């Protein structure tokens, strides 16, 4: 908790686009609990665990099954703030169909920004990624470091950052965009992702006794727990405009910058008998070690879960059956590939049977 955290939340109505995903499934119940009236806009590509989770909480939650590519402004009725978590959320899934990725991650995200400007939304918090840094020539990349996005995913993130900040600059302070560049997330969520580095390595060590490392494993990643990332969105919603408006913040903590090889070694120590397999063929073009001073000193952001704690959390969740290793949806690219095979991710695809629902 910090001075801008949920405990001091002023409430209000917030739209969370992509709110049924890995981050949203943690963030949305926190917002509801903090007194926000929450509208979730999502295609529910990964299911409806959010409805079950949130129904146990007091407060107001509305789930709207719609596509960000053709949503209209009715979803923003009475909305004061937007959190945009929506889109295709990793490199290989974005590469499945670049045109669809661009339509969703750039076209859909731009559409929501325009709608928000039209209806007078003030605070707009966008989930970007530290992957916009791409390949770092040096350590400790700050928000001012030149970006070098290596993938379509990272390029789409940077495009929306630039659009948002340009809109903010033109709005004389009325529109307050905030960009959060999240580190690589880890940890357990109701919409589980086993395609994220730490989660994936723990899963393969547990299930196959093997930890796969791309290249020599010397590449850096800034890790951050999914619950800590969720708290950063609440901070960004509550902080005074003078601190966050038109700003970009790296979200993470310095001590969670780890090299992949060291992560593999720690997982191996926790799961004795597993072997580390280095793949010379699979080079990793991403390498970034990030500076988090701005989030710490200006927003009071801190992380409650370390990388080591995260390894134990995921092992425990697998061991206790809290997460299902056989749920295909927990591998994002595999699941999107299956959806593409069904319909090409068309606008009207009936992916899951989540109706528009209101839980009051
Ligand atoms: N997980 C990470 O490590 C990480 C790191 C940095 C940044 N981010 C960013 O944070 C955000 C949230 O990530 P996540 O891990 O929760 O991803 P996720 O894939 O779990 O969630 C994305 C959500 O968007 C929805 N969605 C996708 N296309 C849609 C469309 N056309 N219309 C409506 N809904 C659609 C999906 O159904 C899903 O619920 C993403 O923007 C991601 O790029 C994530």
Summed up:
With 360 residues, the protein is of the alpha/beta class. The chain is built from twelve helices and 13 strands.
The largest sheet, given as strand count, sense and whether it forms a barrel, is: 8 strands, mixed
Order of helices and strands: EHEHEEHHEHEEHEEHHEEHEHHHE
Strand content: 15-25%
Show unreliable segments. 348-360
Total of domains? 1
Shape: globular
Q: What is the class in the CATH system? A: Alpha Beta
| Helical residues, percent | 25-40%
Total number of strands: 13
Strand order of the largest sheet: 10-6-5-4-1-2-3-13
The overall pLDDT average reads 90
Bound molecules: nicotinamide-adenine-dinucleotide
Please give the count of helices.
Answer: 12
**CATH architectural group:** 3-Layer(aba) Sandwich
Q: Write down the CATH topology.
A: Rossmann fold
What structural class do helix, strand and pairing data support? alpha/beta
Radius of gyration: 19 Å
| CATH H-tier superfamily | NAD(P)-binding Rossmann-like Domain
Distance between the termini: 26 Å
Description:
There is one protein chain. This protein is α/β, with parallel strands linked by helices. The chain has a single domain, classed as Rossmann fold, CATH 3.40.50. It is 38% helix and 19% strand. It has twelve helices and 13 strands. It has helices at 24-33, 49-55, 91-96, 98-119, 152-170, 197-208, 226-238, 241-244, 260-270, 293-299, 307-319, 332-343, and strands spanning 12-17, 36-42, 60-65, 81-84, 123-129, 176-182, 184-186, 210-214, 220-225, 247-251, 257-259, 275-279, 357-359. The strands form three sheets. The chain has an eight-stranded mixed sheet with strand order 10-6-5-4-1-2-3-13, with helices on both faces. It has a three-stranded mixed sheet with strand order 7-9-11. Strand 5 (123-129), helix 5 (152-170) and strand 6 form a beta-alpha-beta unit. Helix 6 packs parallel to helix 9 (260-270). The longest helix has 22 residues, at 98-119. Nicotinamide-adenine-dinucleotide is lined by residues 18, 20-24, 42-46, 67-69, 85-89, 104, 108, 127, 129, 182, 184-185, 191, 193, 196, 332. Nicotinamide-adenine-dinucleotide (NAD) binds at residues 18, 20-24, 42-46, 67-69, 85-89, 104, 108, 127, 129, 182, 184-185, 191, 193, 196, 332.
């Amino acid at each position: 908790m910090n001075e801008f955290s949920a405990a001091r939340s002023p409430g209000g109505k917030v739209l969370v686009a992509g709110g049924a995903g890995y981050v949203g499934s943690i963030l949305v119940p926190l917002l509801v609990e903090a007194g926000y009236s929450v509208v979730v806009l999502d295609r529910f590509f990964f299911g409806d665990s959010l409805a079950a989770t949130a129904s146990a909480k007091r407060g107001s939650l509305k789930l709207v099954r719609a596509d960000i590519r053709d949503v209209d402004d009715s979803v923003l009725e009475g909305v004061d703030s937007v959190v945009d978590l929506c889109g295709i959320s990793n490199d290989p899934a974005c590469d499945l169909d670049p045109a669809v990725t661009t339509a969703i991650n750039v076209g859909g995200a731009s559409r929501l920004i325009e709608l928000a400007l039209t209806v007078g939304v003030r605070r707009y918090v966008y989930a970007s990624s530290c992957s916009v840094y791409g390949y770092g020539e040096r350590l400790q990349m700050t928000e001012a470091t030149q970006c070098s996005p290596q993938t379509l995913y990272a390029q789409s993130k940077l495009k929306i950052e630039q659009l948002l900040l340009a809109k903010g600059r033109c709005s004389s302070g009325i529109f307050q965009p905030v960009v959060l560049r999240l580190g690589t997330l880890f940890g357990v969520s109701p919409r589980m992702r086993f395609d994220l580095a730490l989660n994936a390595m723990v899963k393969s060590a547990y299930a196959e006794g093997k930890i796969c490392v791309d290249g020599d494993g010397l590449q850096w990643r800034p890790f951050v727990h999914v619950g800590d990332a969720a708290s950063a969105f609440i901070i960004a919603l509550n902080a005074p405009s003078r601190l966050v408006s038109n700003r970009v913040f790296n979200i993470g903590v310095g001590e969670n910058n780890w090299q992949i090889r060291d992560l593999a070694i720690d997982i191996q120590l926790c799961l004795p008998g597993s072997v580390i397999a280095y793949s010379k063929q699979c080079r990793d073009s991403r390498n970034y070690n990030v500076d988090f001073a701005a989030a710490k000193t200006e927003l009071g952001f801190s992380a409650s879960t370390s990388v080591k704690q995260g390894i134990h959390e995921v092992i425990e969740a697998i061991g206790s059956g809290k997460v299902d290793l056989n749920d295909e949806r927990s591998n994002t690219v595999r699941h999107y590939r299956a959806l593409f095979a069904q319909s090409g991710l068309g606008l009207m695809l009936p992916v899951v049977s989540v109706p528009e629902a209101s839980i009051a």
